[in-house]
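[#protein-structures] MJ: dropping ABC transporter ATP-binding protein here for a structure pass
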Amino acid sequence: MADNEVGRDECLLEVRGLTKIFGELRANDGIDLEIRSSEIHALLGENGAGKSTLVKMLFGSLEPTSGQILWKGNRVRISSPGQARRLGIGMVFQHFSLFEALTVAENIALSMDGNVSIENISEQAATLSREYGLPLDPHAHVADLSVGERQRIEIVRTLLQNPELIILDEPTSVLTPQEADRLFETLEKIKSEGRSVLYISHRLEEVQRICDRATVLRHGELTGDCDPRTETPASLARMMVGSEVKTVSNTGGKVSDDILIEAKNLSAPARTPFAVALKDINLVVRGGEVIGIAGVAGNGQSELFDVLSGEELAQNRADIRICGTDAGRLGISARRLLGAGFVPEERHGHAAVSSMTLSENMVLARHKSDSDAFLTGGPLKIIRYNAVLDASERIIKEMDVRMSGEDPDASSLSGGNLQKYIVGRELDRKPAAIVVNQPTWGVDAGAASRIRQALIDLAEAGSAVVVISQDLDEIFEVATSIAVINEGRLSAAEPASQMTLERIGLLMGGIHGEDTPVAETGLEPAHAH
Ligand SMILES: Nc1ncnc2c1ncn2[C@@H]1O[C@H](COP(=O)(O)OP(=O)(O)OP(=O)(O)O)[C@@H](O)[C@H]1O
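AK: finished. structure tokens for ABC transporter ATP-binding protein:
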């Protein structure tokens, strides 16, 4: 073995007393961590615990305030991601750094050293994606891909650099159960090749399933180091949160006769060659109902969200009705004025402008729907910043948003805390109708149950709620009825109490009959509720 190689079970990466201070906040406070070779090591902690800060220091995108990093026993200063890659550390971020106008292969080319032709990269990427079970078309444009597909690009481009340690920040939050299973096989393969994985996840069951060890952070400090297989999800959650996580209560309120969201024979052509056309969608959501829309990524979820929210206009006014008004040709602000709220899937760049403060983001989203509260009268329409800050503080308190500073930039919030703020910003208006796309992506168990409970409470208070989600546990937790989107078609909503995972699997495969073998859908009967 060469001097710089490490054997199985030996220490690949060691961190001693690593500390990062932002202003007054100790985001990481004296963290110790050891990652052995051929190990899948979980990094756990609630939103804002300091996980991303730690891994950004390991990947050279943040400089530690103090502490040491040792790579194969040698002290190193990782001053840039390029240097981390040269050492053998690869990272798949929670937020992707992809150029939307470029193809998959062109994006990969940008992160490679040297002059490799696009054809060569396309071939390598196609081979790797086949080998590791991560289907990807190298010639597709990123703009046309779903979040799940974008994540595959990041994984493939990391693997192309042949790293010894791969850091994955919440890789399964956008994946379906089948895609997640495939990823776990990929990770087992990576491990069997002698590489290691540092795995950030809020899903404790999967941590128990695939991780050999776990390090737990809370408020920037190390609170535990354990073998997750000998713990329970509840004991791990306790280590993370310091108390029990509240379970969601869904008693199912009274459904009114008022139809507050409706799509009638809604069709929309695919906007690009890679987008999904919506085909004859019918959806009726009454006050008091939560309709969960399940589906495998890339089956028209974002197209449906865009046309329901008014980001894209429908072909006819009557294709969509919101709170009793034909709204198909109205834009997003006009639909908000009818009493609707919308939470898109991507929090950075879509739901929030990262470089703007929370209050500025509030003005951007609600200046039309809340102009009476947020703007002065008369022609000048000056912003009443005190009113905006009051509303912002109300949301921060209500949703338990944790952050450093009083009105920070959206970019400085941890992913889950920004998500709580964005959902809270819509719920604060008490919309009569709301459509949310992937409401708890990257959100810890405690915060996810808070967001889900808030959606259920809104419905119980009489609003109509549509939750588009790939997380079937979430769908079962919140929904009163479930529909499935497949290749741009939406199945009829069925009562959640009568739905099973097998039935959803059949509908996800576009099969509506009762007698199709479950095996064809890729969903195991053992998953049934
Ligand atoms: N650039 C920054 N400036 C100021 N504060 C920051 C910055 N980056 C992170 N923080 C703060 O540091 C703390 C830790 O954030 P971090 O993103 O590391 O948490 P996390 O555990 O990864 O959370 P999540 O699970 O939500 O992604 C948070 O309170 C966050 O607001």
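MJ: nice. The longest strand covers residues 11-22.
AK: one more thing. The first helix runs from residue 51 to 58.
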